Amino acid sequence: MAAVRPIDFPQTPSGISATADPEAGLALRALHYMVLMREVEDRIERKLYRQGKIVGGVYVGRGQEAIAVGVGLATEPEDVLFPCHRDLALYFMRGVHPRQVLAQYMGRVGGLTRGKDGNMHMGDLKLKIVAIISAMAASVPVAAGAALAFKYRGLPHAAFVFFGDGATSRGDWHEGVNLAAVQRLPVVLVCNNNQWAYSTPLEKQMACQNVADRGPAYGIPAEVVDGNDVLAVKDAARRAAAHARAGLGPYLLECKTFRMTGHAAHDQALYVPKHLFEEWAKKDPIDRLERHLLRKGWAGQEEIDRLHEEIRQLVDESVAWAEQSPYPDPSELHDNVYEQAPAPDGGE
Amino acid sequence: METTYLEAIRQGIWEEMERDPNVFLIGEDIGVYGGAFKVTAGMLEHFGERRVVDTPISESAIVGAAIGASMMGLRPVAEMQFADFISCAFDQVVNFAAKCRYRWGAAVPIVVRAPSGGGNRGGPFHSQNPEAWFAHVPGLKVITPATAYDAKGLIKAAIRDNDPVVFFEHKGLYRRVKEDLPEGDYTVPIGKARVFRPGQDLSIITYGAMVYTARDAAEELAKEGISVEIVDLRTVLPLDEKTILKSVQKTCKAILLHEDTLTGGVGGEIAARIAEKAFEYLDGPLVRIAGADTPIPYSPPLEDAFLPSVEKVVDKARWLYRY
Fold first, then answer.
1. Buried b or exposed e, range A43-81, using 16+ CB within 10 angstroms
2. Distance (Å, rounded) from C-alpha A146 to C-alpha A21?
């Protein structure tokens, strides 16, 4: 099986008038991808999952879209991305079509793994996206290795690896960060600190105040950024990327946000105090960006409404496409365990 | 000139590094020190720091970094200082490396070298044979050479292979095994067993250092007129079922011998396959001889009792022959 090729779809917000200000252009791109991620995930979690059309786990990044999108805006096409499970927008920014994501969730052949894996466990090396595994932070040393390959070849690219606050408790995180630091590898470490790891709050995850506090222990710079401000995330990610590309080693970026859902679609998160959802709802990154666009005069309400409408249509069409995509044939079960299926006779 | 098993591996790696600029080494103490067993001695001086990467004590990061580098087109050869420490990297090997191709079509062409095996009074954490853990993982290839010829040919094949390989080199063979090797480049196919010694009366199916235990037992038994065939698996995943079955169909009796502990060992899998596919040929029960179901003890009398001995193989073979 070759990894699925990306399908062309609108990569720029067509519903919004072009503007000369480059910062405005970036802000509009950001809104496009954040709304697309929200819409796709709402459809996945609130419709398809409840309708029983998605049989496996569903983990969404509602309220955390600014992190994937903000960092994504600071990446170059040759950089390699290691998204975590709340970073869906990165796939869209690399050209994965929403229909492929929906088919992936539904276990259809149109998904990036042809039904071999589900939800956010997807990647495509042609797009320089590496799939996560379920053990959190396992991607961190792998990202260090990808960065090592860039350094090995003298290429100016960076590896961007995403993880949650809980993942920073795992040994893989520490081993990977330390190796990257010692070898001065171009790795941008992006923490989506949404303050909850399943039902475990931050204070039971770590005794320090910030994930960023761990940076100095490894001799690497670290900064905290408002994870609900996409433009602030983008600026911070650019600082991190510049540091990595300059051969100065890894850079830890802690994006503070809040998980506006349960751990997964089955989880009502009754353990999270209600007032926190209410407080963080006021900091919603999409609302915030839209207010910013209006205030700056970079977009009018009508244009923003049109963007939402266009994305709804795109997602409608994508859902329909994914539902038409067939399930894999059971005969595919044994495909691609190895490059060549081992002959029982030892190859004679 | 005779070449040791250790030198054969070293030559194989060296030649592959000369052949392909994408091949590089990553591990603990492999550069300046040349590796705990000196398999990589002289490589730092010859190939430089870029291609011989000394790391912190981080087995998971070593394998993880190898995976990431391989996805970007390099051909990493990672060293676990002792096979015993590969458990620290277990998740990277079995969940990351082994499953990428199947899940999303990404090749992970890495080699994880793991010096394994007992008999060196290394105690519970410097003596293990953990191949069965990995032989249970679809997506991996698991290599266990016994001869210098195979060690060289298989390490080269492993480096060129596009799937993740765990390469168990038996420490007890490093300097004990010496052979004349052919000049020039050659590889040995992964997944292909060979008949180490032809015989008629019973088969001993084994691999790694136990090939020599089987050989010594076969020589003893030959004096009594018992003709033993030894099958050296060379690779335990994928298994060369055809060569195993062919031998059993000829001799009609089989001993499954390994240094790894008995329960859940590779021998059980082979016994099952023989029972499934050559049942009618069998003239006696399948006999497993393996390391004891204990941790590997340190004190010489205890370790010797742990390891399958020539005497034990001779005894069991006699019993099976007369069955």
1. bbbeebbeeebbeebbbbbbbbbbbbbbbbbbbeeebbb
2. 35
Give the confidence band of A4 by pLDDT, cuts at 50, 70, 90: very low
| Contact B100/A at CB under 8 A | yes
Task: Look up residue B201 and give its two tokens.
Answer: 């009366």
Domain covering B194-322, topology: Rossmann fold (3.40.50)
Q: Report the SS3 class of residue A50.
A: coil
Partner B contacted by A141 (CB < 8 A): yes
Q: Given this model, what pLDDT does residue B184 score?
A: 93
pTM given for the model: 0.96
CATH code for residues B2-180: 3.40.50.970
Find chain B residues with C-beta within 8 A of A183's C-beta.
Answer: 53, 55
Q: pLDDT band at A17, cuts 50/70/90?
A: low
Alpha helices in chain A (DSSP H): 22-42, 65-72, 89-93, 98-105, 139-152, 171-182, 202-205, 230-245, 274-281, 285-296, 301-324
CA-to-CA separations, B287 to A167, A323, B225, B258, B283, in angstroms, rounded: 47, 54, 20, 11, 12
- Any CB–CB contact under 8 A between B238 and chain A? yes
Q: Do A172 and B60 touch (CB under 8 A)?
A: yes
Instruction: Give chain B positions within 8 Å (CB) of A342.
Output: 191, 238
| Percent of chain B whose predicted confidence (pLDDT) is above 70 | 100
Is residue A7 pLDDT above 70, yes or no? no
Ordered by start, the domain boundaries in chain B are 2-180, 194-322
Among B14, B19, B26, smallest CA distance to B52 is for B26
Please answer whether residues A141 and B82 qualify as being in contact, where contact means their C-beta atoms are separated by less than 8 angstroms.
no
d(CA B256, CA B287): 6
User: H or E element: which one contains B166?
Assistant: strand B165-170
Which CATH superfamily groups domain A22-260+268-322? Thiamin diphosphate (ThDP)-binding fold, Pyr/PP domains (3.40.50.970)
pLDDT in tens, A159-173: 999 999 999 999 999
Q: How many CB pairs under 8 A join A and B?
A: 170
Chain B contact present for A117, CB below 8 A:
yes
Q: Parallel, antiparallel, or unpaired for β A222-226 and A251-256?
A: parallel
B126 noted as active-site residue: yes
Q: Which two tokens stand for residue B8?
A: 């054969």
Helices (H), chain B: 5-19, 43-47, 59-71, 90-91, 100-104, 131-135, 148-160, 210-223, 241-251, 266-277, 300-306, 310-322
Domain limits, chain A: 22-260+268-322
Tens-digit pLDDT profile for residues A238-276 = 999 999 999 999 999 999 999 999 999 999 999 999 999
Nearest neighbour of B104 by CB, restricted to A112, A146, A152: A112
ipTM of the complex: 0.97
What is the pLDDT averaged over residues B202-218?
98
Longest Cα–Cα distance of chain B, Å, equals: 60
Query: Quick one: average pLDDT of A130-147?
Result: 97
Residues 171-210 of B with CB under 8 A from A: 189, 191-193
Average pLDDT (A326-346) is: 89
Task: Dump pLDDT digits (tens) for B50-97.
Answer: 999 999 999 999 999 999 999 999 999 999 999 999 999 999 999 999
Instruction: Say how many C-beta atoms besides its own lie within 10 A of residue A204's C-beta.
Output: 11
Provide, as residue numbers in chain A, all residues whose Cβ is less than 8 Å from the Cβ of B72. 80, 145-146, 149-150
User: What whole-number distance in Å separates Cα of residue B152 and Cα of residue B164?
Assistant: 18
